[in-house]
Structure formats: structure tokens, C-alpha cells
């Protein structure tokens, strides 16, 4: 129970850390050092979380595989969105990878909501649509 709580709070924290970075890019004057550092901090924290959840899942198997897929797809789409939004806005390959990860994120969220009745993933569906809109409009 305690491990699940810490993993849930870590995932929520990473999700809440992502959106201010996106808003910063739109509101403030672009600064490459700030954008690079924000990307690196978020990526390092997300990779640590993914490794941690992988190790704990192999060791204890206390989460469903669909929940792990949801969290990993969320973080991967966030990382690719930040990379293409902050660091490489003209890279076509990164754009296609980002769009693929967003569609995978939407599919897994959709599957969680309708097949497994996990209401948390409604936020994932809305987030995937918002990421898609940001990708298309920017």
C-alpha cells in the first residue's frame, strides 16, 4: 500500500511538473538555457521514475500491467513533447515520434477508461488531445 501511494504521488508530481514547463514557453521570453535545464530536469526525474516502477514491478508485482503501460506512455509522450517543443521545434523525425507517442497515450487511456473502468485515465485522454492540439498549433 505504501509503495503504491509513493508511486502515485510521484506520477502526479511529474504530471504537474510538465504543464508549467509548457506554459513557461508560451508566456515568457524564450531562454535556451532555462528550456534545456527544464527539459533535462524533467527527463531525469521521469527516467528515474520509470526505472523505479520497473524494478518494483519486477520485484513485487503490485500494479496491473495496464497501469504501468499508462504511466510509461504518459511520461514518454511528455518527454517527446518537451524535446520537440523546447529543444528541436523543426525536427520532423521527432515530431513523428511525438505524434506516435501521443496516439499510443490516447489509445492506452481510452482502453483503460472503457475496458478496465479506471477513471483516472479520462485525464489522460484529455491530456493527449491537448498535446495533439499543442503539437498542431505550434
TrEMBL record:
Keywords (A to Z) from UniProt: Membrane, Transmembrane, Transmembrane helix
Keyword field contains Transmembrane helix: yes
TM ranges: 12-33, 39-56, 68-88, 94-114, 121-137
Protein name: Uncharacterized protein
Organism: Terrisporobacter mayombei
Lineage: Bacteria, Bacillati, Bacillota, Clostridia, Peptostreptococcales
Amino acid at each position: 500500500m505504501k509503495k503504491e501511494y509513493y508511486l502515485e504521488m510521484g506520477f502526479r508530481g511529474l504530471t504537474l511538473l510538465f504543464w508549467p514547463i509548457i506554459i513557461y514557453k508560451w508566456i515568457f521570453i524564450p531562454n535556451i538555457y532555462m528550456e534545456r535545464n527544464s527539459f533535462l530536469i524533467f527527463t531525469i526525474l521521469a527516467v528515474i521514475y520509470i526505472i523505479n516502477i520497473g524494478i518494483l514491478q519486477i520485484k513485487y508485482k503490485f500494479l496491473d500491467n495496464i497501469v504501468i503501460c499508462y504511466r510509461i506512455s504518459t511520461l514518454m509522450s511528455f518527454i517527446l513533447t518537451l524535446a520537440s517543443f523546447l529543444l528541436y521545434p523543426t525536427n520532423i523525425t521527432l515530431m513523428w515520434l511525438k505524434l506516435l507517442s501521443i496516439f499510443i497515450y490516447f489509445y492506452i487511456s481510452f482502453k483503460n477508461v472503457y475496458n478496465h473502468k479506471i477513471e483516472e485515465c479520462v485525464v489522460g485522454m484529455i491530456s493527449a488531445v491537448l498535446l495533439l492540439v499543442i503539437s498542431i498549433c505550434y
